[in-house]
């Protein structure tokens, strides 16, 4: 009996160690992005077990208006590539715009064009490991908050007034973290589909892959943070929302498979602003709300951006 128990214990220990090795490898590849010429062809079984290399999204589409290419350096010496788009006439202010995970600044060109038509200067960059910015490691918002701070500092040095922030998905979550970490004071804030915590974000990804969420999400979160040197369970936009007191527009698609309604309501509840608005899009998922429901997006966003204190329809 003792021999059987010892063998069972060794077997369970071996399975546990093997499971963690596989999950750690998956976490590594989930947090890394590569240029096309860096991606190596690997057997399908290896990609299934150990993870697949992720390709960066190219920067192809450009704003429909004249723009300046900019290079910013973060506090941890990562060079970010981006655009500064000046308003055609006297600007209403300057809007800092941040794309989502596995995307690039080209992925938000339609929103850039829309805000420019509203009369705003635009400043946007590719997050680290995305587009043409340096690095190949994405922490899904943890270190990317330094990227947001670099953009904010760049605009502050230009002494521009009425600085607002827009972000989608990871971009929205990262904006919340930057506001929390660096006490940023945007004049207004638009958040589209931010996740509630990093664990929630991982669960959302597993959900669309039709993979059981737990305990895999917890282990992926742990290893994703451990490999990059941070405690991933502390990445909680729901908590960061408590530092926000400017006018806020929070938007979410009802068919979103990655960010839940519960997460969205918790963020909204924690926002400290006295002028906050939650808008849900009936026909949208985790995607560009502007592109999916353009008319509604414009009807909501335009008056919010025009009004000094936001808007309540």
Question: How is this structure best described in words?
Answer:
The protein is α/β, with parallel strands linked by helices. It folds into two domains: 77 residues, no CATH class; 213 residues, Rossmann fold (3-Layer(aba) Sandwich). The chain is 40% helix and 16% strand. The protein has an eight-stranded mixed β-sheet with strand order 3-4-6-5-7-8-9-10, sandwiched between helices. Helix 3 links the parallel strand 5 and strand 6. Helix 1 crosses helix 7, helix 4 packs across helix 5 and helix 6 packs across helix 7. The protein is globular and about 80 Å long. The termini are far apart. 43% of the residues are buried. The mean pLDDT is 92.
Portion in helices:
40-55%
CATH class of the largest domain: Alpha Beta
Q: What percentage of the residues does DSSP assign to strands (E)?
A: 15-25%
| CATH structural architecture of the largest domain | 3-Layer(aba) Sandwich
Q: State the domain count.
A: 2
- N- and C-termini, Cα separation: 72 Å
Biggest sheet strand order reads 3-4-6-5-7-8-9-10
Helix count equals: 11
């Amino acid at each position: 009996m003792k021999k059987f128990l010892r063998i069972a214990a060794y077997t369970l220990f071996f399975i546990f160690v093997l499971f963690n090795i596989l999950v750690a490898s998956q976490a590594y590849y989930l947090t890394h992005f590569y240029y096309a010429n860096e991606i190596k062809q690997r057997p399908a079984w290896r990609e299934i077990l150990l993870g697949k290399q992720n390709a960066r999204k190219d920067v192809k589409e450009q704003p429909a208006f004249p723009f300046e290419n900019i290079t910013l350096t973060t506090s941890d010496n990562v060079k970010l590539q981006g655009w500064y788009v000046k308003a055609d006439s006297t600007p209403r202010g300057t809007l800092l715009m941040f794309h989502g995970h596995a995307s690039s600044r080209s992925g938000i060109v339609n929103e850039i064009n829309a805000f420019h038509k509203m009369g705003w200067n635009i400043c946007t960059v590719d997050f680290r490991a995305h587009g043409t910015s340096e690095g190949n490691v994405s922490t899904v918002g943890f270190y990317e908050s330094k990227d947001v701070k670099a953009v904010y500092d760049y605009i502050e040095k230009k002494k521009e007034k009425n600085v607002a922030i827009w972000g989608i998905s990871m971009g929205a979550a990262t904006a919340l973290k930057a506001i929390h970490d660096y006490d940023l004071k945007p004049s207004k804030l638009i958040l589209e589909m931010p996740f509630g915590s990093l664990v929630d974000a991982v669960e959302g990804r597993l959900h669309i892959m039709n993979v059981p969420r737990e305990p895999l999400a917890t282990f992926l979160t742990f290893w994703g943070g451990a490999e990059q040197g941070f405690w991933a369970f502390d990445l909680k936009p729901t908590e960061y929302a408590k530092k926000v007191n400017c006018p806020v527009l929070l938007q979410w698609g009802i068919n979103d498979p990655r960010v839940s309604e519960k997460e969205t309501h918790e963020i909204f509840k924690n926002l400290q602003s006295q002028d906050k608005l939650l808008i849900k899009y009936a026909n949208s998922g985790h995607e560009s709300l502007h592109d999916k429901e353009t008319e509604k997006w414009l009807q909501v966003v335009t008056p919010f951006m025009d009004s000094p204190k936001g808007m309540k329809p």
